[in-house]
Amino acid sequence: MLLEVVTPDKKVFEGEASAVTFPGSDGEFQVLSNHAPMISSLGKGKMTIKASGKEEVVVIDGGVMEVLNNKVVVLAESVIED
């Protein structure tokens, strides 16, 4: 599935992913390829992206996500960098 993660300042990630784990407002949840359409609010926490056999962790400070037609778009309020 195509994953796009953006903040008001920049595009954080764009590419193919096999799974993404999100910090939902009511708990953690995961989206896999060909997931049913959905929209969810996101809380502050770790978003784990599995792509090309690797895992990348992005810490976000809330936002919203949408899944539609095997594309996931994440609109994050901000990304917390170390």
From TrEMBL:
GO terms for molecular function: proton-transporting ATP synthase activity, rotational mechanism. One of its GO terms (cellular component) is endomembrane system. It is found in: Endomembrane system. Its main location: membrane. Keywords: ATP synthesis, CF(1), Ion transport, Membrane, Transport. It comes from the Bacteria. Residues 3-78 form the ATP synthase F1 complex delta/epsilon subunit N-terminal domain. It is a peripheral membrane protein. Gene3D superfamilies: F0F1 ATP synthase delta/epsilon subunit, N-terminal. Produces ATP from ADP in the presence of a proton gradient across the membrane. F-type ATPases have 2 components, CF(1) - the catalytic core - and CF(0) - the membrane proton channel. CF(1) has five subunits: alpha(3), beta(3), gamma(1), delta(1), epsilon(1). CF(0) has three main subunits: a, b and c. NCBIfam families: ATP_synt_epsi (TIGR01216). Belongs to the ATPase epsilon chain family. This is ATP synthase subunit epsilon. It comes from Roseivirga spongicola.
